[in-house]
Task: inverse folding
């Protein structure tokens, strides 16, 4: 029975990684065109309990903001039109499954990024926020490397966002000398 569980787990992980590595759709990339400022929010969740102001959340937020600023994207404290949410979920694996029994020391880490932008509904011009870009990845690690692992996964996803951003917002070409 345990062997069957391992095989199923492997299939699920492979599917999640394959889906998350497809990249953004043309519409998702196009929605990033002209975007010049973003608010950043990071939520960490350990075994189902959301913790917003952890050291890990603050380090990941700083990493994201630094990468955005290096490309000239303004980081603003409150959403002006776009908000990037990084949701980091960490679950302890136990011998009896997730959430109970003797811990194994292995954590699953799910990193999900969503960019919500202010949009208008076509049918009534109602302004609302909608997710226009997203990316997600799932991985596993030992407890001792949990923070670094989650942080590196988040950096990879923000790099994916920035690649999509640059595809529709190429940096200006410096003028050539005559």
Result:
């Amino acid at each position: 029975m345990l062997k069957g569980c391992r095989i199923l787990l492997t299939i699920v992980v492979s599917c999640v990684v394959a889906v998350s590595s497809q990249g953004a759709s043309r519409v998702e990339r196009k929605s990033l065109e002209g975007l010049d400022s973003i608010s950043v929010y990071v939520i960490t969740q350990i075994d189902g309990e959301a913790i917003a102001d952890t050291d890990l959340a603050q380090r990941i937020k700083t990493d994201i903001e630094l990468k955005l600023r290096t490309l000239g994207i303004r980081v603003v404290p409150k959403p002006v039109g776009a908000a990037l949410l990084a949701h980091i979920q960490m679950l302890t694996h136990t011998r009896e499954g997730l959430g109970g029994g003797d811990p194994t020391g292995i954590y699953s880490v799910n990193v999900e990024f969503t960019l919500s932008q202010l949009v208008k509904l076509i049918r009534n011009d109602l302004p609302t926020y909608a997710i226009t870009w997203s990316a997600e990845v799932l991985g596993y690690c030992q407890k001792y490397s949990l923070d670094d692992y989650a942080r590196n996964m988040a950096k990879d996803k923000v790099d994916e966002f920035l690649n999509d951003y640059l595809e529709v917002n190429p940096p200006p070409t410096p003028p050539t000398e005559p």
